[in-house]
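User: Could you check the structure of this?
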Amino acid sequence: MNESHIVRIDKLVAGGDGLTRLPDGRVVFVPDVLPGESVEISLDTKARDFGRGAVLDVLDASADRREPPCPHVADGCGGCDWQHIAPPAQSRAKVDIVVEAFARTGKLEITPRLRTLDDGARRTTVRMVSDRNGTLGFRMGESNDMVGVASCMVAHPMVNEIISSPLLEGEGEVTIRVSPRTGERGVWCHEGQMRRDLDASVARGARGVVHEVVDGHRFKVSMGSFFQSSAEAAELIVDVVRRRLNGLELDPGGTLVDAYGGVGLFSRVFADRFDELVLVESNPQACRDAITNLEDCAATVVQSQMEHWDPCDADVVIADPARQGLGKQGAQAIVDTGAPVIVLVSCDPVAGARDARLLVSAGYELREVEVLDIFPETHHVEVISLFTGDFDDEED
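Assistant: Sure, the predicted structure tokens are below.
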């Protein structure tokens, strides 16, 4: 039988849960709460020094609590875990989580800036599951069960138009991507079988192509390649990186290493600033896309894991690793370029903090950190960190 406790939530932590402590010292992680709230919980998962709880009742609600605006939350949809939090409080919480991650994991004190997306921005890529009847939906929180969804409030209307009717013959999993700026749509079936009556204009499969337009540049993006959650999100990231580079007043020219470069977003938008571009990416499909996207640039595309790449000399490195971050080997590869400027784009605050510590321990100075709230209604956050080395003495 599960234990029941009345607790006060101390704070929100990386991963989106609230943290509290029981009188016996055990740490308990609780979803669907806010800092300062008193809640009754059922202790579902127990270990010697920590556990996971489920909210039975909110006894003293935060002023930042709201009724989730999406009806699917009440059905158990696990797609948006922060819909119970008012939007301004979501952004503040993400900043707090990043600050704590850098302090606890990276041993670094930061005062980050916050940037948010315009209210009208919506996700243009979603991954969904299908039941035996072909109904599309999202998995429930911490479960493989599905909640059927005919429309999603955080998705672009073009996505909702596609998911309003079945895409698969039965059970399966599918990625949907749309480009409002070109009108193109794509569907990639990971499991199951695609319906034969799907509109012929929709690109299909991992090699199906949807073109994106970002910062005035057109990008080929295959369904099997990574791209940001929307063109607006990509442009916000590009703008932050550009501002950081402009703030350094770097001389034009030199070499940019675009680490974990995907389809070539950073290489293309910053091509005019550098004499040479070196993009390193492990996904073969993304590399093929990057070759097309950078065909008019002085670019070399290297298909390789960062830890297996033979580093070249660089003046600037922009690194945008997956959720697990650079890690020791990836960070060392970047350090071995000797670049006096590194811009790190992290999609996990703890991994970003760990990577920041690795770079600082290698002799770099952490200059600035910005928090980008580009995943509204969820705990997910983007962190952009600027590092510089002692390159002024080298120029002298």
